[in-house]
Amino acid sequence: MSAESLQLQYSMDIPLLLSNLLHGAARHHHESGIVSVIDGITHRHSYADCELRARKVAQVLGELGVQVGDRVGTLAWNDHRHYELYFGVSGMGAICHTINPRLFLEQILHIINDAQDRIVVFSPDFLPLVTQIADQCPSVMQWIMLGEPAAGMHIGGKQPLNYEALLARHDGRYAWPVLDERSAAFLCYTSGTTGNPKGVVYSHRATVLHAYACALPDSHNVSACEVVMPVVPMFHANAWEAPFSVTLTGARLVLPGARLDGESLYRLIEAEGVTFAIGVPTVWFSLLRHMQDRGLRFSTLRRLLLGGAATPPAMIEAYAELGVELYQGWGMTETAALTTCAQPLQSQAALPPTERRKAIFATAGRIVAGADMRIVDDNGQPLPWDGSAGHLQVRAPWATARYFKATESALQDGWLPTGDLAQISSDGFMRLTDRSKDVIKSGGEWISSVEIENIAAGVPGVQAAACIAASHPKWGERPLLIVELKQGSELTEQEVLQHFEGRIAKWSRPDAVLFVDSIPLTATGKLFKLKLRERYGNYLMNRL
Predict the structure, then answer these.
(1) Looking at 74, 143, 181, 190, which residue is catalytic?
(2) Rounded distance between C-alpha atoms, residue 411 and residue 378, angstroms
(3) Can 181 be counted among the known catalytic residues?
(4) Which pLDDT value is given to residue 4?
(5) What crossing angle do the helices spanning 313-321 and 449-457 adopt, rounded to 10°?
(6) Active-site hit among 106, 263, 446, 486
(7) 3-state secondary structure labels for all residues of 118-172
(8) 502: CB partners within 8 A, 6+ apart
(9) pLDDT for res 74
(10) Backbone angles phi and psi of 467, in degrees to 5
């Protein structure tokens, strides 16, 4: 075969664009769409409605002078308007920059100014925040409120615009441009627990490929028959890809808004027939307590996907008793979230449910299709998949290769370092043993804070538990267990420590238990161990 014939194009060259996902859902899934809760009011839109409104968003941005590649910031909850912005901003060639309102004020200022957002669209809930920062955001030429601004209101010397009024001025007759599929579609910043947040850019191609990977049976297993509710915020790694995999398949999408308490979520799940939901463990703890306290059951919910923190086995079993399969996934902002998922192999499918949950669902899972992972030693040399612990590295078409504005690659030997320590079994199931910065190094031995936290979470009366490395004059570091008790619990330190008998090596047991009123969480719902180390890092030194 000649070189000339090899260059012939044998398939259609259709770019992988997000606008194509929404257009496909609007064209082929007429009975499905978006259910959105805003201030207690339920809104319903078909995918065709959402595409029309997204086209209007693109028209509005063009009218306001937004150009291809400009950043448009969002400060919003999970609702249909945020969904429209996802597709309207990226569809016209701009970059949708989702801003996490739970970050510190200084961090929010940093990321808006670092991104040089031209427009910021915000929910009325965040008006006090926007008012505080507007004067210090010189790049922002217009603020748009997802509501009715009060008469005479000014933000940063500018009168905010009304989102719905802007959309009403346009007819939606807008043709999605054919963009380069490798052009940027989204910008999301890390949580910044060890410094200023860093920007991660997601291209159209990366996001569409990730949507396909997430929808597969061994990942989210999303089909047109599902009703999916992402409780993970849309400002956190694009809600772990859920809006895109759901749109790709035409499933119904339920967006819960700002009310994420157990009672509100249960009512919404039952009212809308949710079959699959996604979120961090703290949210599902709240829902579980609500269910158990009232003796409730689910009528439609079958699956919960958790990420962001290790899931205690006791929680997995508690949901199993309610008829819900609770399993873990793992990812990070740099990988657009989902990269592994705890789904069984053929050889494990016939295991008894309890044994399968213990063997599979308590792990972070195996790599999703299209990605790869490995563990390496301190010198970067690959380690065998035999239970050895090492530094976890990944690669995937949707994983970042370089941070926003960075000149240097984020990769090492073509792999992305995750900052996690992990073990990989011979059949490819990955178990996180700790974050590199959270592992406890005691007398030359490594102690997993995650293992201690999982055991502590199973102690009756414990609401939440975090284990940190505390300074010790002899061993360098020793584990300190910090516990938040359930209301009414009167657990003692000795009772908690007794729970570790026979469950962990004696030298790995916590040296002390410290009871606190509440354990701080990061902006993404994870245990804020940096703050805990700052507060209690010398606790054992002071106690000796």
Answers:
(1) 190
(2) 16
(3) no
(4) 57
(5) 40
(6) 446
(7) CEEEECHHHHHHHHHHHHHCCCCCEEEECCCCCCCCCECCECCEEHHHHHHCCCC
(8) none
(9) 98
(10) -115, 130
pLDDT of residue 237: 92
Q: What's the pLDDT score for residue 42?
A: 97
> Is 334 labeled as catalytic in the residue annotation?
yes
Radius of gyration, alpha carbons of the chain: 24
506 is annotated as an active-site residue: no
Contact predicate 100/523, CB 8 Å:
yes
Question: What tokens appear for 259 in the block?
Answer: 């009310």
Coil vs helix vs strand at 154: coil
Give the other-Cβ count within 10 Å of 153's Cβ.
14
pLDDT at 84: 98
Cα 206 to chain center, whole Å? 17
Single-letter code of the amino acid located at 542: N
Catalytic residue among 441, 486, 492, 495: 441
Helix (H) or strand (E) segment spanning residue 497: helix 493-498
Residue 189's DSSP bridge partners are 199
Q: Which of 181, 226, 325, 334 is catalytic?
A: 334
- Position 419 scores a pLDDT of 86
Q: List, for residues 480-539, the tens digit of each pLDDT value.
A: 999 999 988 989 999 999 989 888 878 789 999 999 999 988 766 677 877 888 899 889
Residue ranges in the chain modelled with pLDDT below 50: 1
188-216 pLDDT, tens digit per residue, is 998 765 568 899 999 999 999 999 999 99
N-terminal to C-terminal alpha carbon distance within the chain: 79
C-alpha to C-alpha distance for 298 and 284, rounded to whole angstroms: 14
| Eight-state DSSP code of residue 521 | B
Domains of the chain by range and CATH?
A: 12-206 (3.40.50.12780), 440-543 (3.30.300.30)
- Distance in angstroms (rounded) separating the CA atoms of residues 44 and 49: 9
Distance CA 63, CA 84 (A): 17
- Pairing mode of beta strands 462-472, 476-485: antiparallel
CA distance 236 to 331: 12
Q: CA–CA separation, 148 vs 94, rounded Å?
A: 25
| CB of 262 closer than 8 Å to CB of 286 | yes
pLDDT reported for residue 443 = 64
**What's the rounded Cα separation, in Å, for the pair 92 and 71?**
12
Q: How far apart are CA 537 and CA 429, in angstroms?
A: 33
| CA atoms of 513 and 49, how far apart (whole Å) | 54
Closest CA to 72 of 139, 20, 128, 8: 139
User: Looking at this protein, which amino acid is placed at residue 342?
Assistant: A
Backbone angles phi, psi at 269, to 5 degrees: -60, -45
* Contact between residue 245 and residue 215 where contact means Cβ atoms under 8 Å apart: yes
DSSP-assigned letters across all residues of 259-286: --SHHHHHHHHHHHT--EEEE-HHHHHH
The three-state secondary structure class of 379 is coil
Name every residue whose Cβ is closer than 8 Å to that of residue 31 and which is 6 or more positions away in sequence: none
Contact by Cβ (8 Å): 45, 36: yes
Q: Is 207 a catalytic residue?
A: no
Report yes or no: 233 and 46 within 8 Å, Cβ to Cβ.
no
Residue that has been written with the tokens 């996001």 in this structure: 207
The residues with which 470 forms a beta bridge, in sequence order, are 478
